[in-house]
Specification:
about 140 residues, alpha+beta, N-terminal domain of TfIIb, GMP Synthetase, Chain A, domain 3, 2 domains, three-stranded mixed beta sheet, 3 helices
Length: about 140
């Protein structure tokens, strides 16, 4: 892989209950475990950060493939749900992702085709492929 950009961040404190900051200072967050995991919920958590990054990255990938296919992405959006759970066998934790893709200006077949193509070029999709379950749901579409 030829590196085009490198993002840097430092997490410190108590892991999920600490802080994270990028080397350029553009992102600085307080981290807190969610209430569902026994935490205070008073900060963001790694799963939220991953969800935001994956949604943005996948939407960018959609824009690339839409431009190549001359498709209309008016009012498009991508939502990501990142699920944290215990792995089978009780050893360790894992993630799963649901991507909800809204392409309201397109018919279902075109929207699904673009989502499938975006999944092949999105860096997050490429990084997770074969490691975690990623489900892509095409939402509101014109019929």
């Amino acid at each position: 892989m030829k590196t085009l950009y490198t993002a840097e961040a430092l997490a410190s404190g108590e892991g999920r209950d600490g802080s994270a900051v990028t080397n350029d200072g553009k992102l600085s967050v307080t981290l807190a475990s969610p209430k569902e995991l026994g935490g205070s919920g008073l900060g963001t958590n790694p799963e939220q950060l991953f969800a935001a990054g994956y949604a943005a990255c996948f939407h960018s990938a959609l824009r690339v493939v839409a431009a190549q296919n001359k498709a209309d992405l008016t009012d498009s959006a991508v939502a990501a749900k990142v699920h944290l759970g215990a792995l089978d066998g009780g050893v360790g934790y894992g993630l799963a992702v649901d991507l909800e893709v809204a392409l309201p200006a397109l018919d279902r077949a075109t929207a699904q085709d673009l989502a499938d193509k975006a999944h092949q070029v999105c860096p997050y999709s490429n990084a997770t492929r074969g490691n975690i379950v990623v489900t892509i749901n095409v939402m509101e579409v014109a019929e």
